[in-house]
Write a structure and sequence with these properties.
14 strands
Length: 332
């Protein structure tokens, strides 16, 4: 939303539109580009890569313009801009991912508490997040809260993790833990960590781990909110960049695969075609043959086989390799 006052309404509106273009470019750049740096400067006329700009709401006076905008970028020109500036980028969105904040207090572990500082920071930051990760803070309810055991979650017990994923109706879970601790030397510290789990509740990887020392417990509590805000931003940034790195567009690698698609129901084939149409980086999709029970297609993909299957896995698809061809196994 822009609110601009100038000499006249025409000038104010022009400034507001330019501000909207700049803001939209910054958001797009940070969302897609690997390791975006704020000090990057580019010689670019934003009008050349923007398809159109739409004013949604508008209010004005003689010298003031207030409005909100939708900005649509031209895919071809944006891609050229990335390539001309040697920028690595991704444009694949993740499956829905739950974020489960746990805070270690003197009275025990706290979760599903919207008044808790750790939980509220995560809620705010995810609400403001504009990247490729489909994140949502797990809210739960009183019945789920009674069923869950914090120690089992911290021990990565898959059955306990799966309870949260099932309730949230997501495909992955990140547990994010913050806990003040007393160290062996008598100092206090604030430990933060993040772990990733798959749709079956199984541990996948440690995303982040850090320990910050403080002089005493009072010092921990005095600086806690400011420090935790930095930690939340850091965790989101690290995982977001890791996601982009695993799903980069690679113009220098061209992959061809032959794929068999079982057709058990009428919708199997049309659903697969629609899914493929929504996947970036696919340059060519050829139907080689189709029968009542199976179809064979050839896919030309800009990137590696691993990247392609990583994208398919995000859509719930799994494959089995037979010699130089692949068979679609199922869709979750």
């Amino acid at each position: 939303k822009s609110d601009v006052t100038s000499k006249n309404i025409q000038k104010a509106k022009l400034i507001a539109e330019n501000n909207a273009r700049s803001t939209a470019f910054k958001e797009m750049f940070e969302r897609l580009v690997l390791n975006p740096k704020n000090d990057n400067t580019f010689k670019i006329d934003l009008k050349n890569i923007i398809n159109f700009i739409k004013i949604n709401q508008e209010a004005s006076s003689i010298t003031r313009f207030v409005g909100s905008f939708d900005v649509c970028f031209d895919k071809t020109e944006t891609t050229k801009f990335f390539e001309n500036n040697d920028l690595s980028y991704a444009e694949i969105f993740s499956v829905p991912i739950s974020v489960f904040p746990i805070y270690g207090s003197p009275r025990g572990y706290v979760f599903f508490d919207e008044q808790n500082t750790w939980q509220s920071i995560w809620t705010r930051e995810i609400d403001n997040y504009n990247g490729l990760l489909s994140l949502k803070v797990s809210k739960g309810n009183i019945f789920l809260k009674r069923k869950l055991k914090a120690k089992k979650i911290l021990s990565s017990e898959s059955k306990e993790i799966l309870k949260i994923i099932t309730y949230d109706q997501t495909k992955r879970l990140i547990t994010v833990i913050a806990e003040p601790v007393l160290l062996k030397n008598g100092d206090f510290a604030l430990k933060t960590s993040a772990k990733l789990y798959n749709k079956n509740g199984q541990f996948v990887a440690n995303i982040y781990k850090n320990v910050k020392n403080f002089k005493n417990y009072e010092n921990v509590k005095r600086n806690e909110k400011k420090y935790l805000e930095k930690e939340v931003k850091k965790i989101i940034y690290i995982y977001s960049e890791s996601w982009k790195k695993s799903n980069l567009f690679n113009k220098d690698i061209l992959t061809h695969i032959d794929l068999y698609v079982p057709i058990k129901k009428d919708k199997n084939w049309s659903n697969f075609i629609n899914l493929v149409n929504d996947i970036p980086y696919i340059n060519e999709f050829i139907i080689i043959a189709i029968r009542n029970d199976v179809g064979k297609v050839r896919i030309q993909f800009q990137g590696t086989v691993d990247t392609l299957f990583s994208i398919f896995n995000e859509k719930g698809l799994k494959f089995r390799k037979v010699k130089d061809e692949f068979i679609l196994l199922n869709k979750d």
